Please model this.
Amino acid sequence: QLYLVESGGGLVHPGGSLRLSCAASGLSLDEFAIGWFRQFPGKEREGVSVISDSGDRTNYADSVKGRFTISKDNAKNLVFLQMNNLKPEDTGVYSCAGARTTMVGLGTWEYDFWGPGTQVVVYS
Model:
């Protein structure tokens, strides 16, 4: 059984930082591209960032470039999303998702399985 579990969400003020983790079980992350997505109530899920199976390629949504960094530790089967200079519009449920391929984009249809998500709230 393949599954992903996110952690690291929480409450933070604007300008603050959080580091999200995505732990994988039942799979080896070096065979999967992993993406991070977020969703605010009433809005569609949007892609935030993606990292290739080997970890050598990354991509980001324009809204987070320069503030968020995705990384991967295949030996520990973990993917991270470092989020700096957080803004209220970054609030949402953040989920990681896996695609059994080298690299994919930020479309939800490109992924095969999802974690349940972790809540991030940025408030003044």
Remarks:
- Residues 34 and 65 are 17 Å apart (CA to CA).
- The mean pLDDT is 96.
- The chain has no helices and eleven strands.
